[in-house]
Amino acid sequence: LRVYTRTTPTSLQHVQGCSASRRSHPFAALLTHARATQYTRSIHVVRTLAETMEVDTPSPVAAHVLKWADGGSDACLEDAKRMFTEDQDGFSQLLVHLVRCVVAEEELSSEQMVNFLLELYDFASTLAEESAEEGGASGDKMAAEGAGGSSASGEKEGESATDVVTTFFLDAVWVMDLMHEKAGPPRTRLVELMRAVKEAEVIAAARMREVLEPEFLAEIKVVASAQSFQRSLRVVNTRRHMHQPIEFLMSDESEGFAKLYVALAFHIGPALDGTVSIAQVKEVMGMFHIAPMRVIDITLYVLMNAAAGCGDAQQARALVARHRPLLLEFDANALVQVLGFMFKRHEEETLEALAAGAAWDVAAMQILARFTVLLVVEEVVDMEHILPYLTPTQAQMQRRKAEVTKKAALLARSLTTINLNQDESEKTSEEAADDAPPYVGNTLSASLYPAVPEFPALEREMGRNQVFEIIGALLFYHENERALEMLSRFRDGMPCSHPSVRESLAMQLSMLVQPMYDAYRAREAKARAHAKSSGGGGGKPKAAEGKKGGDGMDVEAEEAESAAGELSTFPSQLFQLLPLIGAELHTSTPLFYKVAVVVREVVTAAITHKRFELPQRELEAVLVHSLLPCLSLTASAYAIAQPIWDTLRVLPYVVRYRIYFHWRHSKYDSHPLLVIVGAKALHETRKIMGRVARENIKVYQRIIAKMSHSNPVVVFEKVVENMQSYGNLVPLVNDLLRFVSPLSHDVLVYVLLHEMASSAKPKMDGIGVASWLSSLAQFCGIFFRKHASVDVGGVLQYVANQLKNSSSADLLVLRQLITQISGMEVGEQLTESQVGALAGGTQLRAEAFPGEQAKAAKRSVVRLRDAIVDGALTVPLFVLMARQRTALVYHGKSEKHLKLMSQRLDDCQHTIVQYVEFLHAHAHSFETIAVGLDVLIDKFGVEVADAFFFVRPVLAKLYRDDIHAKEGSGGESDTRGELMPLVESLHPAHVWESLSPHLFASFWSLSLYDIQEPGDVYNSYIEKLEGELLEERAKGKAAAAANNMKEEDKKRAVKDIDKRTRALETRIAKLKCEKKDQHAMVKHVLERIRASAGQWAEVGSSTPFTRAKNATEMFLRICVLPRCLYSPADALFCAQFIHVLSMEMPGGFNTLHLMNIVAKELSKIVCACSEAEAQCVGLFLNHLLRTFMQWADDEQYYTEHIGGLTSFLARPDAPPLPHYEFLEVLRSYARCFSDALTKCLSSPEPLHIRNALYLCTTMIDVFPVVLSNVTKLVRQVNHIVENDKRGDVKLLANRYRAQLQARTPNIPTRESFRCKNADYKKKAEERLKLEEEQKKKEEEQKKSKKKRKSKKSDSSKSSKSSESSSSKKSDAGDKKESDKGDDSSAGKKKSSDESSQKNGSSGRKPKDSEDEEGLIRPRSRSSSRSRERRSRSQDREGEAERERERER
User: Fold this and answer.
1) How far is 826 from 1172, CA to CA, in rounded Å?
2) What residues contact 1232, with CB distance under 8 A and at least 6 apart?
3) Helix ranges, 871-979 (H)
4) Which of 394, 541, 564, 1357 is in Cβ range 3.0-4.6 Å of 531 for a Cys bridge?
5) pLDDT lower than 50: segments of the chain
6) Which residues does residue 769 pair with via DSSP β-bridges, in sequence order?
7) Spatial separation of the C-alpha atoms in residues 214 and 217, rounded to whole Å
8) What SS3 state is found at 1209?
9) SS3 548
10) How far is Cα 569 from Cα 719, in angstroms, rounded to an integer?
11) Which residues contact 29 (CB under 8 A, 6 or more apart)?
């Protein structure tokens, strides 16, 4: 054994490598080598040398060496002899120190050391002879024991004393050789010492060759060269240990093996409790000269078979534990080498079997792996020492996994590859099945199910793996800590794909889950039995009745509490094992379902009863790595998907979407089976989306549902991709999702958000929102309307996040949500009745906008409202939208076109209005979710109009409460007084010197509902509903009296009619009640305004007229214009509030001044507006002009109520404005509007033209006021229609021109417009009578002239021709004069006007002059005659122009 271990080249190289790597402390390397070679004496030598060199204090051995130096060699020799016989350890230390002193040249030379050895050899020989003579071997025995003569040292019992001395000395020299490998004085002295020993023939050369290293032997000339000696040594070792004669095998060793096997098998076995005697094993080894390695091999073989025959794991562990002392007698490294040889041999046999076409022995590998694990568990061997002998290595595992994944990816790619060059005859049966229709009658094609494609078994692809067998054995013996460490270490090799690991994990999971699942089933059975006994049949009990036990305790709560107590110990174990098995759990569908149910119960117990803290990170790991991948590999798993969704639904949407992301991007790209399943699902979805149509939608509803149960992420990614490309698929896809599971719905929302957030396509295409985003937004609205149970919080948060990133395009998603769910539409063209209904209450709006009630889905509305409120997004969304609208105006530098910026601004504004109106209409307590004005304006930087619009319901309620509290009081209430400091802080102090802050607060707090009662609109809808009610009653009577109907049909018809009748009666009653309430409210508000108007008008210290002008200007700037542009309802409110101020606050408000400013600045207002704002301005002016036109048409009403108001004064000292001058003022305003709009229509900027056309279209009912305003507008509009190349502008121009042409016959001329005044009409009739008389006189003059010409005689025949020609000329002249007869009066008047202008009209003012105060004043009456003449001339020109237009 010593020769084998000491001369093995591997051991020598190991020691040399360790020595080279540990130069700083070579003793550790030498000690490691000594332990590895199991040479006990060498261990002792190395330890002695290390201790003596590292200890500073003198040791007893060092004292003997000092005796050598002091007293000579005799004293030291005597001590050595005594120590040899009494203390072998001291003797060995002495020799080590002596050799060290020679090498270090410390008071000892080589010659002295040789002489010392000779003396020792003589003493040893003498001692041996004396012992032999005494008839005992006491000396040899003592020497053998001192030399460590145990079996572990490898010494034979008959070793002589001289051999002991030789061994000790050579070991010391060998250690010194390893310590001083490099050339130098120490090594030179060591070589000289050994050469002296050789020359003195103290030690035989054979013993030197046995112990010392080949290179050292060559240096001391014992061998010729180190290389030749090593070759000879390999040959000798091979012959001695590798080749054995046949007769030796057949005789001695075969008998020794047989006896060893019988000795071991007699004591080792499953049914035997005895242990093998170590002495027996040693006896057989010594008797038959059996190599120790073979003994180890036989022992392990017998013990392994015995452990495999045990009934269970506990017996096997007990068996190995009993024989642990025997195994510890062997060298641990030798055991590891034998085990490694057994693994290697098994691999070789497996390769040979596979090459021969046979199956490889899985059971043998499993037995060997489990036995190895038992040795590791009993700490006989170390796992780290065994792993290098196992195959494959970790690098090979990673390469193998990469190859399998690549192969799966190629197979997946082949599923989605289309060969355009392939003929129909070349298609395989599978490809033909793919091209076939997916259904025949009612039978679905089996290829549409997401089953695992034809892919070789994953364990066969991953190959044999001894490491995974070890992991499976660890799990088999429940060594989970070691197994977890190994699984984590080799996770890149997919250990769970190995059957051994997978089955072991499944076994542990089954043992863990089954009791809890049985308890769950028992609770469910008990609940069903209780429901059945309670009279609920076999279904679930009603929620209202509950489940009460006999003692009054809630049975459900009691059962839930007990379940929570049982589950409190499971999560740590369950969540530890599930991520390990991963997707391989799909191989056992029953176990997969049980695990899904138990995980659901665990999560429910943790969240509902708070018995233990839910490990969210571990739960995410379970879902990402195990449950969801297994779901993907299970076909049509709705029953399993439901408990998984029950687990997911309790998590926040952020966590759910993160899980879906990892599911899609981590698992479908890394796991080979998931790669193929994903490709298959994608391929089938592509085929479905290419074939789906309205005719076959019912068939594909079930197919897509079954596919989405397992692979919703992949399926819906393709569906959403197709919707982005084809917008007409949106309604089809919405119908396609009829049977989809809740988990698939939630995944679909994630896919939508992921596509909208991460798409590389631009969201704005240059002319508006991109079509793909518009399609997705439309689908979001339709989807959430139909599926109210789906969580919409993620979509709302996505919109908020996009607004934070200054992306307003995604507001379309929010707008579609509100539009589709609640039916509220903003920004649409309103009819006249709808405009009037804007001032009404909720019921009137519902009647005017029936689409809102028809489209509204109550459950979806509640879900959307709760998502906004519970998600704390009420204020953030509004603030972000308001700030985004401001940013579009002031920071939208990236916008290239004003049209696009205008469109984005309008979309943002419409969404704000729609969002706030939705909250106002559906929030139960808006006061609790709204914030104060100070927070919105000061903290969030929201504009005043936006802030007041958001909190207006709160302020309006406060205002109404104040009215009821202090009805008729002139002062402000204490409650509203708290608002005044905030209002005053909104603008500088000089603003409030012109405008009352109370007026400002009242203006922004009130709504159109508070100041205008649309009584006519209420009456029209009430009459309409009453007519429908009469019709329904008549139908009911007819149905009741019908004889040609069955009795059942008659009852059903009468019942339906009664239902509709009751609904109509309810609507009528609501309208009447609402009309009554609004009438009272408007009355109270107007009284409050009338009472406060005096205080509002007393602001400032200037004259009343100046105060009114300043207040009007400031009111227009900070109140009217900001709110007028906000929404159509606000525009109408501004016009109505101006009317109220004109009537109730005459001393502090000047209406003419306000209209004058608007007329002068109209072109600037139009050019600075967006399209929607232009429409709002049109509504504002339309309402104002309509009111003015009503006053113009009713002179009596104007004279009694309007003419005497100071709000219509042109100058401070001017008298009240009469009706005639009011007409002139109104006509002058109309001309200013016409000039401003004509200027905008001639602008080179398309947005200005569009805004002007929008404004003109909105005001078409009241503008143009007179026919003279039409000419310029028609000319400019015709120019746009004929020359403008922009289609949208031309379309608007064509529409306005058609409306204008339809209204032109009803537009009064200037003269007829003036005739609205009674005095002017009377004078006009008198002038018309005079003109008719003058016309008769002219006709008589023409007739007399013709008579005079006819009485002329003919001259002569020679002059006939000249007479005839002259007569022709006279006839032509007469005809020409007769044609001009109709216009003679006008010609005379025109000539008289021209003469009057030449004579002295240069000193008059222009026709539209302004006074020194800036107001437009009517012209003086002194030139009324000339103005009338010019007016008639212009009217004639207008009529001629209209005639030419009709002809054209």
Assistant:
1) 10
2) 1159, 1160, 1162, 1416
3) 874-890, 898-922, 926-929, 933-934, 944-965, 974-977
4) 541
5) 1-62, 65-66, 69-71, 136-158, 245-252, 429-430, 432-455, 537-553, 555, 564, 968-975, 1354-1359, 1363, 1367-1423
6) 764
7) 5
8) coil
9) strand
10) 43
11) 15, 18, 19, 21, 22
